[in-house]
Amino acid sequence: MSTQSSTLPPHPEKATLEGKNKFLGLWFFLGGETALFATLFGTYLGLRNSNAGGPTAEELFSLPLVFVMTIILLVSSMTSVLAVMAMRRRNMKALLGWFIVTVILGLSFIGLEIYEFYHYTLEGHQFTKSAFASAFYTLLGTHGSHVAFGCAWITALVIRNFKRPLDTYNAPKFYLASLYWHFIDVVWVFIFSLVYLLGVIG
Amino acid sequence: MATHTEQLSHRKKSALWDWLTTVDHKKIAILYCLAGLFFFILGGIEAVLIRIQLLYPEFSFVSAQTFNELITMHGTTMIFLAAMPIFLGLMNAVVPLQIGARDVAFPFMNALGLWLFIFGGLLLNMSWFLGGAPDAGWTAYAPLSTDYAGTSGMDYYVLGLQIAGFGTLMGGINFLVTVINMRAPGMSFMRMPMFTWASFITSALILFAFPPLTIGFFLLMFDRFFGSNFFVADAGGNVIVWEHIFWIFGHPEVYILILPAFGILSEVIPTFSRKRLFGYSAMVFATALIAFLGFMVWAHHMFTTGLGPVANSIFAIATMTIAIPTGVKIFNWLFTMWGGQLRFPTANLWAVGFIPSFLIGGMTGIMLSVAPADYQYHDTYFVVAHFHYVIVGGSVFGIFAGLYYWWPRMFSKTLNETLGKWHFWTFFIGFHFTFFPQHFLGLMGMPRRVFTYLSGQNLEAGNFVSTIGAFLMGVGTIIFIVNIIMTQSKKEVAAYDPWDGRTLEWAIPIPTPEYNFAQLPLVKGLDAFWIEKMNGNKVMTPAEPLDDVHMPNGSILPLLMSLSFFVAAFGFIFDVLFVAILGLASFFFCMLLRSVIDDHGYHIHKEELIPVENKGGKA
């Protein structure tokens, strides 16, 4: 089953039927995730002005912090692209290295998000405060837990393959993790626009 | 590696372990169908209890609270735990065979979906013994379903269906990928049998309809467990949000329940008419169109919530439009029968009985889609009559047609025809006796979801007849169970190709070998097996030389992962944080195991294939 790096086909991630199935399956999964986040966005947009006397979006959001978070996440998307490009060059070391950088960026994003949430709760914007707060934390929290899951996924992949060559068995797994990572970055772009920018504009 | 015969004897020694760890789509199909039939009987008992309570005016067979629990559990059980799993079972049994595949795309995930459904269903039904069943109706409208109600029943509803829903979503993704990537050589999309088409489109509906439900359940769960305010009006929450989310799932769900039945009819009717399906490409297009429109009409469940005349008109017209592709289908089935050499074994009786029954349900659907008229019908027994005509007269009749038709394929035995006919006629007559009078009860003003009614309002006769009909349906179901037990206890093996079938699932030996096709078949057109038979061949032309077959390994992890969720759910319900964390941690640990342990499967050598293929009972 496992092939040496030198004899790998041009697209090792889609060389086997198993790889093709995983590739298509993940795209469909992301389709379902789109419906999932769309529902959360719909709920948030429906409830975003129902703050029940608590702080409003305009009072809470600080764009500079969110901007830094956005940059971190978009850069992490780029590093995962660099990892896949390393895979195309059969450079396992660079592949693992770029994925480790991706995980570090993901973790720093989560750190900033925890800081942000902690800050908001001090200003009276607790999860149970209002429908707006519930919808905000649920949308952001779902995205954040996706980022955390992505970090765990990529870490598991890196550990498992740390001393193994690239082959048609693990190539699809790396490729899929990177696709998933792009998806959660795209979701963040929507959060940035529909939650933060719209919140500040009012 | 053990030889094939050694594996067979090994399997005999530990049959239970084999079933618990199986990733074989044919065994998963049987487990889906058996669990689904179990829940069908459970939901049927609940239905009979409901009808006994409504036998006489101001009857006190059960209390109002118990009645609320019965109607909630009846609807929930029948839709999520009976109809959908049986369809998923039939898809598992048939779709890989119809497209000439050796397996599904994700055998491990297939098993995970099955066990999630089983544990979700068990969790939901535990509520009867541990604090009271859910009582807010199967739609769980807020605020009836939020903390306002007080009992823990809704906790079981939210978590049980959440777990089962994950399983369904996995099934959906699996079939989408299987159909796209694993068709045999020559099996183009427009040569795929209609049941495969229906399963494919249903899977797409599942993919886009279940995530909104997942979110809806999370929101409800957060409101109930963690004090959020999505549906709490005091803190700015909005209960209409729940209605939108629920019906964005709920309306496509009714097509998830009917499209596979349409697919089954499109297999059964051509087989027993000895004709190809009339208007095949129109059928494909109609199925896709119904699925698409099914997403556009959710608000017709909400005409009376005050969306306004513009929204109501748009949703009313979109709803009426669905009648067009559905009508195309009805006419195509009739034209398929026209001039055919008709036979009426039980499978075809169910298929033909489906047509007028479902048609009545469709016509009352058109009546309900007229928004101003809906203000009169809304929440009356007319609606109850309508959706039972569609779901029982449609989905359940389709399920029975499919079970009688594919039983030889699934269990290698043919169900008894005499008992089958008794089953059909008692159930069919009972069905019309039960639900036809409910149209008139509704028009006379009898509300749904209400546990009794007053005498002297001309509601007695209709309710009495309806309950007698329900008993008759119960008798029919008992006959079916007797039939299953009698058939399975007999040694007689079904004949090869028992119905003179047209599609690929009939081209393999009985019982089905675990690798399905020793050699992948070469498909030369629609009704691939029929083409070969007309060319004088008894078996399919192979598309590849005989070679080793790659098989996936079994695994206990799917069951353990589902069990972990089950444990975690009890942690949430009884508010024991430790148990909840333990369950979730165990789930993620299993996931980690699955990703770090290599699983390359094993091979069955070609020398082992030949004896099995030769004694397979082919003519």
From TrEMBL, chain A:
Pfam families: COX3
Location(s), subcellular: Cell membrane
Keywords: Cell membrane, Membrane, Transmembrane, Transmembrane helix
Ranges of residues in domain Heme-copper oxidase subunit III family profile: 1-200
Transmembrane segments: 24-45, 65-87, 94-115, 135-159, 179-201
Membrane topology: Multi-pass membrane protein
A GO molecular function held by the record: cytochrome-c oxidase activity
InterPro entries, sorted: Cyt_c/ubiquinol_Oxase_su3, Cyt_c_oxidase-like_su3, Cyt_c_oxidase_su3-like_sf, Cyt_c_oxidase_su3_a-hlx, Ubiquinol_oxase_su3_dom
GO CC term, one of those recorded: plasma membrane
GO biological process: aerobic electron transport chain
Family affiliation: Belongs to the cytochrome c oxidase subunit 3 family.
PANTHER family for the chain: CYTOCHROME C OXIDASE SUBUNIT 3, CYTOCHROME C OXIDASE SUBUNIT III
The name this protein goes by in its record: Cytochrome (Ubi)quinol oxidase subunit III
Species whose genome carries this gene: Pueribacillus theae
UniProtKB/TrEMBL annotation, chain B:
PANTHER family referenced in this protein's UniProt entry, alphabetically: CYTOCHROME C OXIDASE SUBUNIT 1 (PTHR10422)
Protein EC: 7.1.1.9
Location(s), subcellular: Cell membrane
GO biological process terms held by the UniProt record: electron transport coupled proton transport; oxidative phosphorylation; respiratory electron transport chain
Family: Belongs to the heme-copper respiratory oxidase family.
Top EC class, one word: translocase
Pfam families: COX1 (PF00115)
GO cellular component, one term: plasma membrane
Domain Cytochrome oxidase subunit I profile: 11-524
Molecular function GO labels: cytochrome-c oxidase activity; heme binding; metal ion binding
Domain of life from the UniProt record: Bacteria
Protein name: Cytochrome c oxidase subunit 1
Bilayer-spanning residue ranges: 29-50, 70-95, 107-130, 156-182, 194-222, 245-265, 277-298, 310-335, 347-367, 387-407, 419-441, 461-482, 556-574
CDD domains (UniProt xref): Ubiquinol_Oxidase_I
Catalytic activity: 4 Fe(II)-[cytochrome c] + O2 + 8 H(+)(in) = 4 Fe(III)-[cytochrome c] + 2 H2O + 4 H(+)(out)
Protein purpose: Cytochrome c oxidase is the component of the respiratory chain that catalyzes the reduction of oxygen to water. Subunits 1-3 form the functional core of the enzyme complex. CO I is the catalytic subunit of the enzyme. Electrons originating in cytochrome c are transferred via the copper A center of subunit 2 and heme A of subunit 1 to the bimetallic center formed by heme A3 and copper B.
UniProt pathway annotation: Energy metabolism; oxidative phosphorylation
Main location: membrane
Membrane topology per record: Multi-pass membrane protein
UniProtKB keywords: Cell membrane, Copper, Electron transport, Heme, Iron, Membrane, Metal-binding, Respiratory chain, Translocase, Transmembrane, Transmembrane helix, Transport
